[in-house]
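call fold target=Efflux RND transporter periplasmic adaptor subunit
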Amino acid sequence: MKAKNKKWLYWIVGGIIMLGAVWFFFIREKEIKIQLETVKPEMGEISNSITATGTIQPVDTVAVGTQVSGIIKSIYVDFNSTVKKGQLLATLDPDLLSFQSEQYKANLQNAKSNLAYNEININRQSQLYKVGAISKADYDLATNQYNAAKAQVGSVAAQLSTANKNLSLTNIYSPIDGTILNRNVSEGQTVASSFSTPTLFSIAKDLTKMRVRASVDEADIGNVKVGQKVSFTVDAFPDETFDGEVSEVRLHPTVSSNVVNYTTIINADNSGLKLKPGMTANITIFTQVLENVMKIPAAATSFRPDSLVVQKYKVNSPFANGKKHEKGQWKKQNKRNTQNKKEEAGVWIIAKDSTISRKKIKTGMDNDTEIQVISGLDKNDNIITGYKLLSKKSSGGQAKSPFMPQRRGGGNNKNSGGGGGPR
């Protein structure tokens, strides 16, 4: 009987120990630890910008064509060839135009011979008319024939000049120094210039200077001005940033899918010849830039001590009491500050003795990532931007985002980084 009672006693003691272990490891509420994340104000550049896409093009491109028709006899350059102004690029078969030139030369000799005969005739008719040997009508007829012969010489001479000019146009020369971007013809191909000038070559004047033809949305074009700095990237060099400058904002709009865009021209240096015509550029235009100003992260003005912070740190604020927090006093103060954000905002500072206090600051430019501080902060201030949970029961100890929706309530709000205090 005694052994049976001892057995039950062992079972009871073991059960109590198991229940205690379950409570200790799984049910017991562990202490929540938090770590504030702080930054110090820094001096630097702050800017507002807009983004756009565009196409890289040479600054100046010349389309070289032909004014005469014919068969391409020879081509002396190819794609990417570097050419000089006046360099021979190609020739057309000159035989047909050469024959035409010879024909006009013969016609000119015939016209000159006819002019010489009529000149002799008019001199003879003039002498006969003076002595009354011929009538006035005969003299006028001789004069008319002489003038017609003279005009014929001029007409045929002009036709010969045209034929010679057309013959010279069978040689295609480069009009500029540059690089051949495109060759549209091959030897033996026939080109006809009856209605329009066919393009034989496209020549880029200087590939060390490029321009970006960007399409800027109508909502952003009002902030774009000539002279603004630009940075852009291309897919060929994703880790490299290229610099440029806005040189022109064109007034002619383009509409695509009911979206109005305006063409903006950006000049860029291409000394390294990395940029190729036709590349797509991802563009950032800096519409406003301030240099050497004090700035802080935008998250700093969004942080507000919640009940967890109040429990772990001494908060130097008239609304540090948790009940007043729940009554919405900080929320009302925050609403007033938000309405007058440019004139007055607030950040929370942690001192060396771990006391948290709020400082009023005057802000300037805000690009949603950083905020310019005009006054109210010292460069040694430790500004609180958020906190992270260090407890094992927390969600991985991740940093709190002040932009996430906050739950109302007191000390059990473990996933929020604050809620309700003045900004």
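return ok
The longest helix spans residues 95-130. Residues 226 and 247 are 5 Å apart (CA to CA).
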